[in-house]
């Protein structure tokens, strides 16, 4: 616990008050990030497994059912053999909810997160995919850093860390479109479905479709990625958005793309939407596709 004394100005002169901050050392953050890197790549969450199992029962295509069965077998094998469920262990996307009553001590928070990624991908024998220069040299950094880090200040004295590895196959099929308010809800529907249609089998379906609406150019993209973190067995708390998600899922699965793009009714496991306010003259929409390796793990310090 850290006690900070703050001087303030009162009507009668100076006054002093104390603020208590919970201290979290960066070494603890590094340790947690390391563990999350490994666990996220090895263990497929129960809600995803259950959705795939449900899809096996509903799938009409024999090839589609076989592929879904192989995906489930692969997930079991990954957990048993302590091996990554997919060879593309992705960009390490780290979402941090940092309590405003926390004092991070002992070093730099961003460096601590990257050190956790470095250790996790090294000790977990996970593929390193990051290149140092995006255009010219494109030399592998050899430790999967730097991570993509999002830090949000929230009330409280805890640090919540979510590690979401994101492979290139699905990420490359994602898109932001600056739509006009006049495009309306039908424009949003058509854009989301068309993005999945144009992606075909490239994002390794069955996919989870994250949709962000509102904010601005960069915020809607972040919303679409954050939408992927909601457990697949939880409905959208907004009834209108929940109905929209169900309609979009139905339309997407009628495309016939199927598991791994080889035909069938299981193209997507879920559509998940997050929204926020936006400018009166704009309606930003982002679609972030996630492959069947729907990987993310969370820990709270």
> Quick one: overall form?
globular
| SS strand fraction | 25-35%
Mean pLDDT value? 95
Structural class: alpha/beta
Could you list the spans in which at least 5 consecutive residues all have pLDDT below 50?
Answer: none
Helix content: 25-40%
What's the SSE pattern?
EEHHHEEHEEHEHEHHEEE
**Intertermini distance:** 14 Å
Walk across the major sheet and give the strand order. 5-3-6-11
Tally of helical segments: 8
Main sheet properties: 4 strands, mixed
Summarize the model shown.
The chain is of the alpha/beta class and 301 residues long. It has eight helices and eleven strands. The strands form three sheets. The chain has a four-stranded mixed sheet.
Question: Explain this structure to me?
Answer:
It is a single chain. This protein is an alpha/beta fold and about 300 residues long. The chain has a domain at about 170-295. The protein has helices at about 25-40, 45-60, 60-80, 110-125, 170, 185-200, 215-225, 240-255, and strands spanning about 1-10, 15-25, 90-100, 100-105, 150-155, 160-165, 175-180, 205-215, 270-280, 285-290, 295-300. It has a four-stranded mixed beta sheet. A hairpin with a 2-residue loop joins strand 1 and strand 2. The protein is globular, with a radius of gyration of 22 Å.
């Amino acid at each position: 616990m850290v006690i900070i004394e703050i001087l303030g100005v009162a009507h009668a002169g100076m006054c002093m008050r104390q603020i208590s901050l919970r201290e979290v050392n960066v070494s603890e953050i590094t340790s947690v990030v390391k563990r999350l890197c490994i666990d996220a790549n090895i263990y497929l969450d129960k809600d995803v497994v259950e959705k795939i199992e449900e899809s096996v029962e509903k799938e009409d295509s024999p090839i589609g059912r076989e592929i879904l069965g192989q995906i489930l077998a692969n997930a079991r094998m990954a957990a048993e053999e302590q091996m990554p469920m997919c060879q593309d262990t992705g960009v390490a996307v780290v979402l941090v909810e940092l309590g405003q009553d926390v004092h991070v001590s002992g070093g730099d928070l961003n460096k601590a997160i990257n050190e956790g990624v470095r250790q996790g991908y090294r000790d977990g024998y996970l593929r390193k995919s990051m290149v140092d220069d995006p255009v010219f040299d494109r030399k592998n950094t050899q430790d999967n850093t730097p991570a993509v880090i999002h830090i949000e200040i929230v009330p409280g004295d805890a640090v919540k860390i979510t590690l979401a590895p994101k492979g290139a196959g699905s990420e490359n099929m994602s898109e932001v479109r600056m739509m006009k308010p006049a495009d309306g809800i039908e424009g949003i529907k058509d854009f989301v479905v068309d993005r999945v249609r144009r992606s075909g089998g490239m994002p390794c379906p069955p996919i989870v479709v994250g949709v962000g609406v509102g904010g601005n150019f960069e915020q809607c993209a972040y919303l679409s990625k954050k939408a992927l973190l909601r457990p697949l067995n939880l409905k959208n708390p907004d009834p209108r958005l929940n109905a929209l998600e169900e309609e979009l899922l139905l339309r997407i699965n009628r495309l016939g793309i199927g598991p791994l793009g080889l035909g069938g009714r299981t193209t997507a496991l879920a559509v998940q939407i997050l929204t926020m306010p936006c400018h009166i003259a704009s309606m930003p929409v982002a679609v972030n596709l996630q492959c069947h390796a729907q990987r993310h793990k969370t820990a709270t310090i």
